[in-house]
Design goal:
The complex is a heterodimer of chains A (about 425) and B (about 775).
Chain A lengths: L11 H14 L3 H15 L14 H6 L37 H7 L9 H21 L10 H9 L6 H5 L3 H11 L1 H5 L2 H14 L2 H6 L1 H7 L2 H17 L2 H14 L4 H8 L3 H28 L2 H4 L3 H9 L1 H18 L5 E5 L7 E2 L4 E5 L6 E2 L10 E6 L2 E6 L6 E3 L2 E3 L1 E3 L5 E4 L2 E8 L4
Parallel strand pairs in A: 3-4
Antiparallel strand pairs in A: 1-2, 1-11, 3-5, 5-6, 6-9, 7-8, 7-10, 10-11
Chain B lengths: L6 E2 L5 H5 L4 E7 L4 H16 L4 E6 L4 H4 L9 E6 L2 E7 L4 H13 L2 H15 L12 E3 L4 E4 L10 E6 L5 E8 L2 E9 L5 E8 L2 E2 L1 E6 L20 E7 L2 E8 L5 E2 L19 E3 L4 E4 L10 E7 L4 E8 L2 E9 L9 E9 L2 E10 L4 E6 L6 H5 L11 H13 L3 H15 L3 H10 L5 H15 L4 H8 L4 H14 L3 H14 L6 H11 L3 H12 L3 H14 L27 H24 L27 E6 L2 E6 L8 H21 L17 H21 L11 E2 L2 E2 L5 H22 L15
Parallel strand pairs in B: 1-3, 2-3
Antiparallel strand pairs in B: 2-4, 4-5, 6-7, 7-8, 8-9, 9-10, 10-11, 11-12, 11-13, 13-14, 14-15, 15-16, 17-18, 18-19, 19-20, 20-21, 21-22, 22-23, 23-24, 25-26, 27-28
Helix pairs in contact in B: 7-8, 8-9, 8-11, 8-13, 10-11, 10-12, 11-12, 12-13, 12-14, 13-14, 14-15, 14-16, 15-16, 17-18, 18-20, 19-20
Classes of the chains: A alpha+beta (about 425), B alpha+beta (about 775).
């Protein structure tokens, strides 16, 4: 119980706006506040869309894999009850004989030896209708399944989705791929964020949500799958590579030479996404557990892991002045070295050293420095180093790169320059490496 | 106050009560805090056992003025004062035992010492080391500790280092070697007694690491995470950083069970020395782990009497090798007491034997190849294409000949579903899989479906081990439907229905599959049957079917639009040409969707729900759907008119529904009543109501989704496919929300000449 009821102060103008909105929109104030909070939380990644489960009817309940019981693990510095085990006995695919037979018997609806005849007849008649109707009209699409090759390709090359991905007609997979390519688009555009609820609905398969609640988390949110794909990739590298490749050979041999399989071999399909969904819980579980174990083993409590202490002195208030002096003196000795370029997003803010040949600025997440603003393009500008000089180049941004109210295409950067990416200022300074 | 009921604290008595000499404990609570109510009787009862203490209660809600300065972060909370000084606070519901322990410790608190520590904390805050800490000590903000010790020539910690808390008490002493802990370490409680000791070897814990409880208050952690207060000493045995064994002892030095503090049971004599009690299972276990903490080697479990329950060989966390277990009442043949066989990568493989009490073989069964996840997920048995029954039988025969029994059974299931004859499947299941009792088969299938229902191999493995086939096949149907293979899913759900025709619940699964196959009429028939046993589920299914496959006619204005907003717009603010262009865009999108939907059906097939052809709106053919960025005021707005048509049929149907709504309302807004390109703007009189209604319904839908029923009581709200919003299932509310979001975006664009397109990303936010 960590929640305290609290009165929250709302500034007068905001309160008036709230009242006005409530009146104009015909929506209750509480509803407005709830929605505002939801949107804000969502925008900042504090809530994920959580599909609600259809009331616990048995039809649904039967199909719902319940969440694996949370395995308790010892916190950081307490004694553990027993040596910590990863992939604890929670989900042994081969059953451990622990299932209480009696209870199970009780769960099962009173079962007659043979199903009633009318059930059988009904099922069969309906089945006949259904099959006739489906097979008369439906043209089923074959869904490509990832071939072993494609998968290993993916594993080795997480960032570049292979071309086949795009050509394959499966939504899950293509969503996934798009996401990896268009990450920038999705991730930090305010208006996109707002859009997100709609997008979720587009992909969120309600049928799926209902039928398998536990899949919801994975299914409704392809982003997750994508995130975990990289984990997966790592895992598959880690885990016996040799076995994997053997397996894939096997499977190819085993498959009869159906045409569908050829196409399967060519494409990374739904299963890639599925895969990551599937394995995610396991992966996460084992990681958690191992982390837990590390923690319990960790030396931090009893004996202080040391790197922190070594650096701690620099944080000491008394010593900062000293180190400041030191810096001045080292400046002199290091003067002959080429100067490094540093970028700040605010005067006095943290400096980022331009340390790659093509240092990109923009609001896309793949930029060397991300500038969070709707007025900045995804890849807005780039800093390139030529000898000891640095140049900034506009990358065809919509709002331009500016210095002194002049829009520039390419310009040499001098110490103390301030450029504007659209309306966002970036501050440059030059100095010795700070290490 | 002796033994009396706790005093209710008020602004009038607060100072007097809490500043009395001696100990005063305050139970802070709030009327809305359910755990508080659980704790109250425990707290009140303790008053009788500790007559020398003052017991008080503080209603944090009623006495906000008192509660706020206390900075209370959690309830229930016990605040403890001694001689007027706050000396301790503890949150959460405590057991009577734990509260007694706490109160006992309070009595022992030395107030002078507490005051010294408080003063020390203030010194630390001021950046000065408290008395007793060497001058050169430095404050480590990360660990909130003072640190001091010698360094080597490279500035690394080297030698004996000491660490102090902010209150000046020593907390840690550790031997460092060139920056790494190496040698003995000790941690201390606030009262100076040792809380932990152990030894490092090159930075890794090695040998015993021992915890000691304290009689006094301590910030050292020992009894969290369900470890009983009765545990007074814990020893963890390390081997180069890895925990090998954990032992718990009570105050008398007797080994105890950590969770209860009860004496550790005597290990049956024939069990190996390293078998430990798993009190959660009430079983003895011998578990060996690899460096990653995964099970590795021979793992064995016994019951409390020492009877072997099961043993299995593990390789890096997976069962691999020999397996055997006690299996009474598990298999159909009552004589069976044990089973044994081989596992490969957690999957059963090869010959398994069922043995009687004398370990004589009753039955053997070859479970064939352990077909793993990779193999099965690519298996043609899961292809979305239908085959003839004979086609599947042929595949099954081939698979069986090659000992791919899993595929053989699954192909047989599809053959049976196609031929509507379950006999061959029943026969093959009998021949190929382990025969279990019904309850055991059902329990196994349920547990595997729950734990691994989203994977291909474990469920097939479950079939081989005798898991109940209908449950497993139905789970495959769900999985296939979700991986966009509804036709394959249909076969598997049919096989399940043939095996268990009495399970009406399977109609729901089939209903969802049939939706993905575009068969709403069939879904309605299934819903009718389902309604007899599960009316709510059935209602959901038919509403969902109506929502996905509505009657596509001219929706707008069929009922006069209404909303409760003021200041509504009077007519479109966009020029006719722009409107015509947007009409063409919508028509192009709808035609594209329509074509894509048609592709999912055989040429010439009748698709009853298909929207009418709108090509009349596109006399010169479809227009280009674009995607671009635009500066809009101060922001860059993305405009995306394009469609993703790769989704499942249900996804496409949803997009269609929203676009259809937006287009009809757009035409309506121009004065049209049919699908005709507007040639002039003649907005209807209730134009503003139409625009407002879209927004209001969007709000209402969102509110319903976000707050559940709060905003729209059951029976109220606008009708969505005949269901009042207040009764609409949350998952269906999303469909309504989506439709009105699209319609609202269209109106937003239409009402503001500054907007460029209904597909502006900034028109769908709120």
């Amino acid at each position: 119980m960590k929640r305290i009821r609290e009165t929250i102060e709302v500034a007068e103008p905001l309160w008036r706006a709230l009242e006005q909105m409530s009146h104009d929109l015909g929506v209750d104030r509480d509803a407005l506040v709830a929605q505002a909070l939801f949107l804000l939380a969502k925008q900042n990644g504090y809530v994920a869309p959580t599909p609600v489960l259809l009331g616990a009817t048995s039809a649904v309940a039967q199909a719902i894999p319940t969440e694996a019981p949370a395995t308790s693990r010892p916190p950081v510095a307490e004694p553990a009850s027993r040596p910590v085990e990863v992939a604890a006995a929670a989900s042994p695919p081969v059953k451990e004989p622990a299932a209480p037979a009696v209870a199970v018997g009780a769960q099962e609806p009173a079962k007659t030896g043979a199903p009633a005849d009318d059930d059988v007849a009904f099922v069969r008649n309906r089945m006949k209708d259904v099959l006739a109707s489906v097979d008369a009209a439906v043209l089923p699409r074959e869904v490509p399944v990832p071939s072993a090759e494609a998968e290993s390709e993916e594993a080795s090359d997480e960032e570049e989705p292979s071309d086949e991905d795009e050509s394959d007609g499966n939504d899950v997979a293509s969503d996934d791929d798009e996401e990896s390519e268009e990450d920038e688009e999705e991730s930090d555009d305010g208006s996109d964020d707002e859009d997100a609820p709609d997008e979720d609905e587009a992909t969120g398969d309600i049928a799926a949500a209902l039928a398998e609640a536990s899949e919801d988390t994975g299914e409704s949110d392809t982003g997750d799958a994508e995130d975990e794909a990289s984990e997966d990739a790592e895992d598959s590298e880690d885990s016996e590579d040799s076995e994997d490749s053997e397996d894939s050979e096997d499977s190819e041999e085993e498959q009869p030479a159906d045409e569908e399989d050829d196409s399967i071999a060519a494409a990374v399909g739904a299963e890639a996404a599925e895969d990551s969904d599937e394995e995610a819980p396991d992966d996460a579980g084992s990681e958690d557990d191992s982390a837990g174990e590390e923690d319990s083993n960790a030396s931090d409590e009893p004996a202080e892991p040391e790197p922190a202490h070594a650096s701690a002195e620099d944080d000491e208030p008394e010593e900062t002045t000293d180190s400041g002096k030191r810096e001045v003196s080292t400046n002199i000795t290091q003067a002959p070295q080429p100067l490094e370029l540093f970028v700040r997003l605010a005067p006095g803010g943290p400096a980022v050293m331009v340390n790659v040949p093509r240092f990109t600025l923009g609001r896309g997440p793949n930029c060397s420095l991300t500038v969070k603003s709707g007025r900045v393009s995804r890849e807005h500008a780039v800093i390139v180093r030529v000898g000891d000089d640095f140049f900034i180049e506009d990358l065809g941004s919509s709002n331009g790169t500016w210095i002194n109210h002049q829009r520039i295409k390419r310009q040499k950067i001098a110490d103390g320059d301030t450029f504007n990416l659209g309306t966002e200022a970036v501050y440059f300074s030059m100095g010795p490496r700070e290490d | 106050m002796a033994g009396a009921a706790p005093v209710e604290l008020t602004p009038e008595n607060y100072k007097e009560v809490t500043r009395r000499p001696g100990v005063c404990v305050v139970d802070c609570w709030a009327p809305w805090c359910a755990p508080c109510h659980d704790f109250t009787p425990i707290f009140t009862a303790a008053a009788a056992r500790f007559p020398d203490l003052t017991f008080a209660r503080l209603d944090t809600e009623a006495q906000e003025a008192l509660a706020e300065p206390l900075g209370i972060e959690a309830l229930p909370l016990v605040l403890a004062f001694k001689d007027g000084l706050e000396v301790h606070r503890a949150s959460g519901v405590m057991s009577a035992d734990a509260l007694d322990t706490l109160l006992g410790k309070l009595v022992a608190v030395d107030v002078a010492e507490e005051k010294r520590r408080a003063a020390n904390r203030r010194l630390t805050e001021a950046g000065k080391p408290p008395p007793g800490i060497p001058k050169g000590a430095t404050w480590d903000a990360g660990d909130a500790e003072w640190t001091f010790g010698p360094k080597d020539s490279k500035g690394r910690q080297h030698g004996t280092w000491k660490f102090w808390r902010a209150d000046g008490t020593l907390c840690n002493e550790c031997v460092m070697k060139q920056g790494t802990p190496h040698g003995v370490f000790k941690r201390f409680h606030e009262d100076g007694s040792v809380s932990q000791e152990g030894t490092f070897d090159q930075g890794q814990l090695h040998g015993p690491r021992t915890w000691y409880a304290s009689e006094h208050f301590t910030t050292e952690r020992m009894h969290e995470n369900g470890v009983s207060e009765r545990v007074k000493k814990t020893v963890m045995l390390y081997d180069q950083g890895e925990v090998r064994q954990v032992l718990h002892f009570d105050g008398t030095g007797q080994r105890v069970i950590p969770t209860t503090g009860e004496p550790y049971p005597v290990r049956p004599a024939h069990l190996p020395e390293d078998a430990e009690l798993r009190e959660d299972l009430d079983q003895w276990a011998r578990v060996s782990l690899n460096a990653e903490g995964e099970r590795h080697g021979l793992i064995r479990f016994w019951d409390r009497q020492g009877q072997l329950l099961w043993e299995a060989e593990y390789v890096d966390g997976l069962r691999h090798g020999h397996y055997r277990s006690r299996a009474v009442d598990t298999y159909a043949d009552f004589r069976v007491h044990f089973d044994e066989g081989q596992a490969e990568g957690n999957l059963a493989a090869g010959v398994w034997s069922l043995l009687d009490a004398q370990r004589q073989v009753v039955l053997t069964r070859d479970l064939g190849l352990a077909q793993d996840e990779e193999t099965l997920e690519r298996s043609p048995v899961f292809s979305n294409l239908a085959r003839t029954a004979e086609g599947w039988r042929e595949f099954a025969r081939q698979a069986r000949a090659e000992k791919r029994y899993r595929e053989a059974l699954l192909a047989t299931a599809r053959a049976c579903a196609t031929a509507m004859d379950v006999q061959p499947l029943t026969e093959w299941l009998e021949q190929l899989t382990l025969p279990r009792t019904r309850p055991s088969a059902h329990a196994l299938a349920m547990s595997v479906v729950q734990e691994a229902g989203e994977r291909w191999a474990p469920m097939a493995d479950c079939l081989m081990r005798g898991g109940e086939a209908a449950t497993v096949l139905r789970a495959y149907a769900v999985l296939l439907d979700q991986t966009d293979r509804p036709r394959a899913a249909l076969d598997f759900v049919h096989a399940a229905m043939l095996l268990a025709p009495e399970r009406k619940a399977y109609l729901f699964t089939r209903g969802l599959i049939l939706l993905n196959l575009g068969q709403p009429e069939q879904v309605h028939q299934d819903a009718e049957q389902l309604a007899k046993v599960e009316p709510d589920t059935a209602r959901f299914l038919s509403t969902y079917a109506r929502a996905l496959f509505p009657r596509y006619d001219f929706w707008a204005g069929q009922e006069p639009p209404r909303c409760t907003y003021d200041g509504l717009p009077e007519g479109p603010q966009q020029p006719l040409e722009s409107i015509q262009q947007v009409v063409r865009k919508y028509a192009t999108r709808i035609q594209t969707l329509r074509a894509e939907l048609l592709q999912r059906f055989k040429p010439g097939a009748v698709v009853s729900w298909l929207p009418p052809d709108l090509s009349a709106l596109l006399p010169t053919g479809p227009v280009k759907l674009e995607q671009f960025e635009l500066e809009f005021g101060e922001d860059v707005v993305e405009i995306d008119e394009t469609l993703d048509t790769s989704g499942g049929l249900a996804d496409l149907a949803l997009v269609m529904r929203s676009d259809w709504s937006a287009l009809t309302w757009l035409l309506w807004a121009c004065g049209e009543k049919t699908f005709r390109m507007p040639t002039r703007l003649a907005p209807p009189a209730d134009y503003g109501q139409g625009a407002g209604q879209a927004s209001q319904r969007l709000w209402q839908s969102r509110d319903r989704r976000l707050r559940g029923g709060d905003g729209s009581p059951a029976g109220e709200g606008f009708l969505f496919e005949g269901v009042p919003l207040g009764e609409l299932h949350p998952n269906l509310v999303r469909l309504a929300e989506r439709q009105y979001a699209e319609t609202q975006a269209m109106f937003y664009w239409l009402n503001d000449s500054d907007h460029v397109s209904p597909w502006q990303s900034n028109l769908r936010g709120s």
